[in-house]
Specification:
Length: 525
């Protein structure tokens, strides 16, 4: 591959006009000939820049309302021509070199997701010429530079200034790689849309093909274990209130497991409007509570399982100050603290402990997950499902026992239901006064989870008398209800749906336990 070529001619055709004028002005000052299309050309002329329109350049008009404008041998040949191989044929057909291509595409994804967009509008936003130009320039990156991202323009301008109007080999390769990723994502969105339409699925459903495109966010020191490699990839536009969008304010880099646990903690704590705290260890909440303040919520969550809380991930749903942070440091070692905001004093305090990472997320009034999907890998494939959006507003809340739960019990039952879907199945938790008292997670038998949760509460000297129980799935036998009664449980929330529901309800009635069916199971594997 040759070292560099001075850029003398550039093709600019962009839907997103961000930063295009400064780039064009810089190119013009370097004596670069500018070729452009339609609206881009008009914008350049409005800013007094000399520009040759594509139809002037090729001698062929734009036709079909702009569907055909850059698909011409003089354009394609100028981009694809290898200067050391194709020079004679380019000269014979009057095809000048095009050294730089600046393109971004019609907004297919944005338009296709609009509920009121017609199929005609969506199809008209499938870019044809743009991807062809991008792929041609990226293929011939040995001679031609391709730019698809407006955020790259300034760095590109600086490189031209520092390299006498040329672009380094490694830069051309970098831009080409970025360009191919751009068109792959674009085509993937189109393929997904058409696949869903064929199978008559809603646009948030799953069609016969699924194309996924993620961007590298960061390389990790290792994966789940030190002998595994790891990396963190993100969606093109992740939600502002998720672990992927969180900003690290201080501390050493996050690990693979930090990110997994942080996701569980953050997604759980967002369910609460009251001051709330969630402590997670090994992908399971080990303490969750709400209170009149974050300090109270933390103390209640910590009391559930202080042993497991050591080295855990802690998430809050309100601003964290230095008083709370110092209190936490006095109690335990913490790997990651997550909150929507930290005071300046809290950040300064945390800087004294480099092993403690602070992550700040953007809290939003409503948490929409309609287009999110959950992916799990298996050997040779992936399992894909819609995100579990089950919540308090989507359950049936059917009271199935003779005794209805009291107002206080209902509050604790709903608190428990907020938490239970973030615990690995089989999951059981006990709660009272907005505090988890015992959590049983990941057992093969539900009765074992029921017993483990009680053992944890007993070990921490937390009284289960008058507490409630939450279960992520139905009870297959009445033994769980009998055990709960032994522990002092007075109300239960569960999905229902067992063949033995009647036996379970009869048992609850005999023992004076109130029970609510949600009609929704929330397994988490």
């Amino acid at each position: 591959m040759h070292e560099s070529t001075v850029i003398q001619r550039a093709l600019l055709t962009v839907y997103d006009k961000t930063n295009i004028i400064p780039l064009a002005e810089s190119l013009h000052l370097r004596g670069v000939e500018l070729i452009s299309t339609g609206n881009t050309a008009s914008l350049l002329k409005q800013h007094g820049l000399p520009v040759i329109t594509v139809n002037e350049y090729t001698g062929f008009p734009e036709i079909m309302n702009g569907r055909v404008k850059t698909l011409h041998p003089k354009i394609a040949g100028g981009i694809l021509g290898r200067r050391d191989v194709d020079g004679d044929i380019m000269l014979a057909h009057d095809i000048p070199d095009i050294d730089l291509v600046v393109v971004n595409l019609y907004p297919f994804e944005q338009v296709s997701q609009k509920p009121d967009a017609s199929l005609e509008d969506i199809i008209e936003n499938i870019d044809i010429g743009g991807p062809s130009l991008i792929r041609a320039a990226a293929k011939n990156h040995e001679w031609c530079t391709i730019l698809v991202d407006p955020s790259d323009y300034q760095g590109f301008i600086l490189e031209l200034e520092n390299n006498h109007g040329t672009v380094r080999e490694e830069s051309r390769f970098y831009y080409a790689a970025k360009a191919f990723a751009h068109t792959a994502s674009y085509d993937g969105n189109i393929a997904n849309f058409f696949g869903q339409k064929i199978d008559q699925q809603p646009l948030t459903g799953f069609g016969r093909t699924l194309s996924l495109n993620y961007q590298l966010k960061e390389k990790l020191r290792y994966g789940e274990n030190p002998h595994q490699q790891g990396a963190f990839y993100q969606e093109a536009s992740p939600a502002p209130d998720c672990i992927t969008s969180a900003i690290q304010l201080q501390g050493k880099e996050l690990s693979f497991n930090n990110i997994l646990d942080g996701d569980t903690a953050l997604e759980c704590v967002k369910n609460f409007e009251q001051p709330a705290c969630v402590i997670v260890k090994h992908a399971n909440p080990c303490g969750v509570a709400v209170g009149t303040s974050l300090l109270q919520a933390y103390d209640k969550a910590y009391a559930c399982d202080p042993i497991s809380a050591f080295g855990g991930i802690i998430a809050f749903n309100q601003k964290v100050d230095d008083k709370l942070l110092q209190h936490i440091f006095n109690q335990q070692f913490v790997e990651v603290l997550i909150a929507p905001e930290f005071t300046t004093q809290a950040i300064q305090l945390a800087q004294q402990k480099q092993n403690c990472r602070l992550l700040q997320f953007h809290a939003v009034p409503t948490h929409a997950m309609a287009h999110r999907i959950d992916i799990k890998s298996v050997n040779g494939g992936i399992l894909v499902q819609s995100q579990d959006n089950s919540g308090i507003n989507t359950i049936t809340r059917e009271i199935v026992t003779k005794r209805a739960p009291s107002a206080a019990e209902i509050q604790d039952l709903l608190f428990g239901w907020h938490v239970i879907k973030y615990i690995k199945s089989n999951a059981i938790l006990y709660a009272k006064n907005g505090q988890t008292l015992g959590i049983g997670a990941g057992q093969m038998s539900r009765i074992f989870s029921t017993e483990i949760a009680a053992l944890k509460a007993k070990e921490m000297k937390l009284d289960l008398k008058g507490a409630v129980m939450a279960s992520d799935a139905f009870f297959p036998f009445k033994d769980n209800i009998e055990k709960a009664h032994e522990f002092g449980i007075t109300a239960i929330i569960q999905p229902g749906g067992s063949k033995r529901d009647n036996e379970v309800i009869d048992c609850a009635n005999e023992l004076g336990i109130a029970m609510i069916f949600t009609g929704t199971r929330c397994f988490r594997h």
